[in-house]
Amino acid sequence: MGAWLRGVAAACALWLAAAPGMARDAPVIAAAADLQPALEELAEAFHRRTGHRVRPSFGSTGNFARQIRAGAPFELFMAADESFVLDLHRDGFTLDEGRLYAVGRLALLLPRDSALQADGSLADLRARLADGTVRRFAIANPEHAPYGMRAEEALRRAGLWEAIQPHLVYGENVSQAAQFALSGNADGGLVAYSLVHAPRMAARGRHALVPADLHAPLRQRMALIRGAGPVARAFHDYLDEPEARAVLARHGFEVPGAD
User: Fold this and answer.
1) Residue 227 class from Cβ within 10 Å (0-12 exposed, 13-18 middle, 19+ buried)?
2) What SS3 string covers the chain?
3) What is the Cα–Cα distance from 176 to 178, expressed in whole angstroms?
């Protein structure tokens, strides 16, 4: 069974594992991995306000898009790259084109004992590659993870792609890449800024924001999947409220209308 088919099976298992009658009451949200700290907080706030629960499933945007096309029972898709949502809408899988809910940023994440400096310009990474200090360096898989795509762009624009390729380890999504970066077996990685300044991650490592001009914008878009029920629709609307936008901004996202 291919990786994406295993992903569909896992998504279906998550849905079927819900208690009888829970599927519609607690819709499953396909959410980009960079959203985990923020969305867990937002899901709990939504539950306190409405009494309804949603069930976020975190992973890579590209894998989720394939799963949605294969019929996985998600009701809301929160992508890390808007092109995946727009493609799904073009092919009739979403109710509309959705809306931009955030712009993500890329960050250099280092374990505390790394020989690398927390230098978002990547100049120190260049020097350490040249002197042979770098052993392993983590990014998300560029084949299906938007943060991996942007990490590759940043490394290419910094002139480091050819030199760093032998040292790369790939996470299935950006959250796994962050775990690899702090594992002790890597010197660092390029991951989502929204993950690195979460308290549980910040306590374990050092980080620096990567300049936005080193990569294309991470425009993050969400849309309701055709057949979405009332709870998913209510959560979608809640995410457009100032309270929810403020939570996203606090977790390191650039958010339309958060000011």
Assistant:
1) exposed
2) CCHHHHHHHHHHHHHHCCCCCHHHHCCEEEEEHHHHHHHHHHHHHHHHHHCCCCEEEEECHHHHHHHHHCCCCEEEEECCCHHHHHHHHHCCCECCCCEEEEEECEEEEEECCCCCCCCCCCHHHHHHHHCCCCCCEEEECCCCCHHHHHHHHHHHHCCCHHHHHHHEEEECCHHHHHHHHCCCCCCCEEEEHHHHCCHHHHCCEEEEECCHHHCCCEEEEEEEECCCCHHHHHHHHHCCCHHHHHHHHHCCCECCCCC
3) 5
Residue that has been written with the tokens 């829970």 in this structure = 22
> Where in the chain are the domains?
3-103+217-250, 106-209
Query: Fold match between 3-103+217-250 and 106-209?
Result: yes
Distance CA 178, CA 180 (A): 5
Structure tokens at 34: 């960079």
pTM: 0.88
* 83 Cβ contact list (under 8 Å, min separation 6): none
| Domain covering 3-103+217-250 in this structure, CATH number | 3.40.190.10
| Domain 106-209: assigned CATH number | 3.40.190.10
pLDDT tens digit string along 217-232? 999 999 999 999 999 9
Q: Look at the chain and count its residues.
A: 259
Residue 190: phi and psi, rounded to 5, are -105, 120
pLDDT digits (tens, 9 = 90+) for 60-119: 999 999 999 999 999 999 999 999 999 999 999 999 999 999 999 999 999 999 999 999
208: β partners? 108
